[in-house]
Structure formats: structure tokens, C-alpha cells
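Incident log entry.

Two folding requests arrived from the same account within the same minute. Monitoring flagged them as a possible duplicate submission, but the sequences differ. Recording both here for audit purposes.

Request one:
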Amino acid sequence: MDIAFPYQLSPQGTTATAASADDHIAQMLEQLLFTRPGERVNRPTFGCGLLDLVFSPGSPEVAAALSITASAAVQQELSDVVKIQSVDVTWAAGTLQVVLSYLVLATGAAATQTFSVPAG
């Protein structure tokens, strides 16, 4: 049973679960990207600091730093679930966008998730 993110209740009043294993993996990636290191008391290294770079000027150097940081965070926290193929970071129209391409280790299936946040 994989608890849904964000936490919510099902129509039956119980804890909602993710619709599928693929949805759960996407939710875990989202949590990892949007959590600041140190934000979780019991897991101080969890997170990648994506939100700390939202107000940085959109430059190739910042994009490269974020790509490396995101890849390292996924490798550290979710290497038993996914293998990162690529991380593409772009700033466009006031939005910071991260595109993760990865392999799901349990099935060998390739997947891509896009995560966006308004940039400052």
C-alpha cells in the first residue's frame, strides 16, 4: 500500500493510496525535488533544494548545478526504485521546469516526469 501524496482521505474516510506504482514513484520524486534539505527532522539529508534556486537568475550554470543536485538526490534516496537517465532544467515564461527521465527498476519501463514551479 503506497500512501498518496499529498496526504488525503479516500471517499471511505481512510488514508488515500496512490492509484498505481508509477503514480507513487512520480509522487516520491515530487517530494524529493520540492523538499529542502534539513526540512524533515528525522531525515535531514532528504531533499534537493530545488525551491532554493527558484529566485536565482536563469543561467546555464544554475541549470547545471540543479541538474547535478537533483540527480544526486535521486541517486541517494531512490536508487533502489529508479535509475536517472537525464535531468533537464529550463527557465521559460517565469517558470522553472525540471524534466526527469528515468527507468523504473522493478519493471525496466522508461518514464518521464515534468515538474514545474513559478520562478521569481
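Request two (distinct sequence, not a duplicate):
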Amino acid sequence: MNILDADRHAPDRGGLAELRTFDLYIGGAHVKPASGLYFSSDNPYSGEIWASVARGNAQDVDRAVAAAQAALPVWNSLKPSERGRLLVKLADLVERNLEQLAASEVRDNGKLLSEMLAQIRLVADWFRYYGGLADKIEGAVIPTGRPNMFTFTRHEPLGVVALITPWNSPLLLLTHKLATALAAGNVAVVKPSEFTSTSTIEFAELFAQAGFPPGVVNVVTGFGHEAGAALVAHPAVAKVAFTGSEMGGMRINEAAAREFKHVALELGGKSPNIVFADADFEAAVVGAIAGIFAASGQTCIAGSRLLVERTIHDRFIARLVEIAGKARIGDPMQADTNVGPVATRAQFDKILRYIDIAKSEGGTCVLGGGAYTGPGACGGRFVSPTIFTGVHNGMRVAREEIFGPVLAVIPFDTEEEAFQIANDTPFGLAAGVWTSDIGRALRASERLQAGTVWVNTYRVGGASTPFGGYKRSGMGREGGIEAIKEWVNTKTVWICGKPDTSFPFVMRN
């Protein structure tokens, strides 16, 4: 059965037969919320309410954590290679349901269908990668120099982990955490954003189809102050992994610290995209546009600060405006659409406020500058691609994450000045550099304070490469072999071949 065809999603609701209901997913089954309450989800493009989602609370979190605890010994009784095969099978199912999952994401967050299709393909790639890695989590024999002593390390799963995901790329950003956690032997309770919960529920159904034991993956939908807070505070949760805003990460980190839980945070960014005069001009223009206007700027790695060498500044901006001004705005389900709607009303209002702030600070708006209401607009949540020149790095438009299609352009004269401006930010998630000088590229890779540095490209990544931030952009890494260590406890074992009788009477720590 196709995962989008279940009859339970189309109850009789007073003539709104198309309104679908999404329950919690606990212990391998769909269950009603303890409160009996639901909240609505709307389509950012049309503005129409299309789904009713369960409003989970602390009681539901208790049920989900209990289901995960029951599943943990079952999951860990499987050989690592068996867990790996299940992860690979899940990847196959994701690819089989590619179009349905992508369409659900578009319906919930308004991103372009082309981008969501690419992201769901990456979801499959990540589970396939970590499926292959599941039986390669190795300890080490350590030569201690002590006679008759055999010393080694082993890696053991943390246990029940809490995964809290954002609204901009729900399944891909969940996968960054979940694939690694499961490969390492953990079980999970997921709390998706209240704005984009439906694709996560549909995705969770695939785990049962793949043959995962019930309770390995559980989903509690709802609001942060109810379900999210209860999940972070639950005493049986060993780790909390969160992707979202800086303030949200700060609150989660503080709450988790009270119980000394492991924490991983992937937070905001104000990433510099640096164009030197020796760069491939047209490639850099396209890279600057893709860096900020893809996903309507609703991505943590958006290249929202464009640093352009002064000798090419005016010509570069003219070409930038020319190309970005031709962007087709409209229905995200259409293949020829370049810019879709903003995912939520609150975010739409926030972006417009920042545009007003940039104008009041003296920025010169050379493109866009407000809501878009022209052809293709529907639902009232479109922001025109916006470019500000005359910006310096002390302005709020250059320092604070807007999370929308707003680009701040800052000129520079020297390489040293470019690096200084780029690093003068509380964030450090990503950076881009456009140059034909390999020496400069290598210097940039060393000097720029960011978890990812792209040279002559932007917004690329994959399961095999670590991803995470410096400074206030978060802590921990997702992706690659080293990310496995984020999801295990390392245990050191000392075995004495001959009983040691030389212990002192008083032992010291």
C-alpha cells in the first residue's frame, strides 16, 4: 500500500473529506493523543488548511519513551550487520516513495518540489551510507606498556535519544540525526516542528514496512512547550539532538544540562559568500543567487552576506540584479518555479520586519524590498528576492539571521579585510569563496571560522562529510564516520592476565 493512501487519514469532518488526520506514531502503531486534541496544518502556497495533527503532551512523551525503552534490547540483540540491512532496506523504501514524500514536504513547508525531491534522494543516501557503517563501529586495542594487561575500548549506544527537528527541511534534517543514531544502536523519539509534522509521520510508517522492531522509532507531534519540553526533560532520554533557532537551542541546552544529557545542536548562521575579482564571474553570480534565494532563503547555510571585491562590485551587483530579477515566483509544485512561499506566517512577518530595518539603517534596496503579490502569488506568503547594497557589517541585516530571501552586500578591498569581515559574526556554520587562486582558496579554508567552507561552489554536502558549526552555530557534528562517536559511550576495558597483588592499601582516583 502506498504510504499516502491510508483511509485513517480521511475521516468524516463535517464535509471536509479532504482534511487528513495524523495521529501519533508510538510502538509501531498510530495512536490518539492522550488529550484528544489536534491542531491544524496549512499549505503555505494556498493558505488552505489540509491536515489535522495530534497535539501530544507529556503523557504521550512518557508512552513514546517507554516504547523506545522496550525496543532498545530488541534492537541491540540484532547483529550490527542485521541493523545495517534494515537501514538499507529503509533507503530502498524511501526511494520507492520518493514523489509522495516530497509532495508531502511541499504541501507542509512550501519549498520547491525539485528541491524536496533532491532532499528525499539524500535521505535514502544517508540511510544507505550508515547502513553500510553499522557493522564497522570498532573499538581499539591500546598498548599501555603494562605487563600481563590487555586493554581495549568498546563503543556502546547511548540508549533512548530525542530528536527535535525544524520546519524548513523536516525529513533531511531528521535523517542527519536518525540514520547515525540507529546505526550506532540507539532508539529514538522524534518531535517534529508543529508547522511540518505530516511527512515525519508518513516517513515513520516506512520503518514498520522495512521490518524494524516496533518502538525503535517513535513520533510525538505537538508544540515545543508541551511535547518538546517534556521530551527534553524526560529522565530516560540520554541525548537531545536539535536543529533550529539559536534561542531554541539555548533553551534546550540549558534544560538538558540539568540532567547532564548529551546534546547536539545545529543552529543558525549568517554565512559569508566571498567573491574575489579573479573568480569566474558568471559562476560566482549564479553561486551567490543559489546561496541565498534557493529555498526562499529558509536554510541555515544561506549565503546571506555577500562580500564582493570592490573592483568588480558595481558590475557584479548589476548582473546579480539582472538574473535574480527574472526569478519565477509561484507554485512550488511547478517545475519552472524558482522561488516559493515562506513556510509560516510568523516567518513571513519577520522577514518583512528585517527588510524595514535594513532600509531604516541606510541600506539601499536594489531589488525586491517587500511582499510579492504579482503573478503566481497565492496564499499571501511570498517575499520578493531582495538585495541590499550600501551595507556594512555592523548593521542588523548583516549580523542577525533573517531566514528569508534577503541578501546583504558588503564590499571589501583586500583578502585580509574579506576574512576579517567574514569572521566578524557570532555564527560560524558555513562560508563560500569564489576565486581562481588555489593559494587563496587554501588560505581561506584555514582562516574562515566556519564548519564548512565551499570554494567555487555552494550548498553541497553528503552523508560521508561532517557538518556542524563554530561559535553560536551549534555543537557536535552530523555526517561522516566521525559522527558515529556522537551517538555512543566509549568504554575502556582492562583485563589482567595474571591477578595483580601489588595494589596499595589506599587507592587514589
